[in-house]
Amino acid sequence: MAADPRRRLHSVDVEPDTERRSVDRALVAAGRGDEEAFADVYDALAPSVYGLAKRVVRDPARAEEITQDVFLSVWRFATRFDPDKGSAGTWVMTLTHRRSVDVVRAEEASSRREDRVASHDTPFDAVSEQVTSRLEAEPVRRCLGALTELQREAVTLAYYGGYTYPEVSTLLQVNLSTIKTRIRDGLIRLRDCLGVQP
């Protein structure tokens, strides 16, 4: 009986090297916008991605979020995958590990900040309240439109998406110093556009 050519890839196969090459080809095709090939990559690698994320963060719900974020990055940046430099599995698992570690570090940093704040009697911050109010206003949306696409993407992920700078760096596959520069320049342009005094 002939094999179905549309058969989905599986994470367990009799011939792992054949499967690896199939996943590599599927990821290259996904980079060209082939949604079915991306589904094949997802089917083949999602259990391993979730498993690694869960081992690092030790929380099933957070591991599911990381899995979703990783595959969003895989879809967005599939064109960057080069099968001559390594397998699709290695590339995706590297993204997973980085994202998982970033989540753990961000949560630890957040916990330390909360502990510091809890140990101090912090007075009401009128400036912070004013900035928060302005962030929800129409002028900010208008000024966001004045940023370059790269600046807007980084600022939106950091301030509306709630991602840390390292998380933004991982999501966009851009080094951290470049992300910091984009966000800093974007915030300066927003400040100038909004007429806020430094």
Describe the model.
The protein has about 200 residues and is mainly α. It folds into 2 domains: about 15-120, Orthogonal Bundle (Rna Polymerase Sigma Factor, Chain: A); about 125-195, Arc Repressor Mutant, subunit A (Orthogonal Bundle). The chain is about 75% helix and about 0% strand. It contains 9 helices and no strands. α2 packs across α4 (about 90-120), α3 (about 60-75) packs across α4 and α7 crosses α9 (about 175-195). The longest helix has about 30 residues, at about 90-120. It is globular and about 60 Å long. The termini are far apart. Mean pLDDT is about 80; it is low at about 1-15.
Would you identify the CATH H-level superfamily of the largest domain? RNA polymerase sigma factor, region 2, helix turn helix motif
The CA-CA distance between the termini, in Å, is: 73 Å
Radius of gyration: 21 Å
Task: Return the average pLDDT rounded to an integer.
Answer: 80
Main sheet makeup:
none
Overall domain count? 2
Q: Which outline best applies?
A: globular
SSE topology string: HHHHHHHHH
The CATH architecture of the largest domain: Orthogonal Bundle
- What CATH calls the topology of the largest domain is Rna Polymerase Sigma Factor, Chain: A
Structural class per helix/strand content? mainly alpha
Count of DSSP strands: 0
| Low-confidence parts | 1-15
Give the C-level CATH assignment of the largest domain: Mainly Alpha
The percentage of residues in β strands lies in under 5%
Strand and helix layout:
Elements: H1 16-31, H2 35-57, H3 60-77, H4 88-118, H5 126-135, H6 138-144, H7 149-160, H8 165-172, H9 176-194
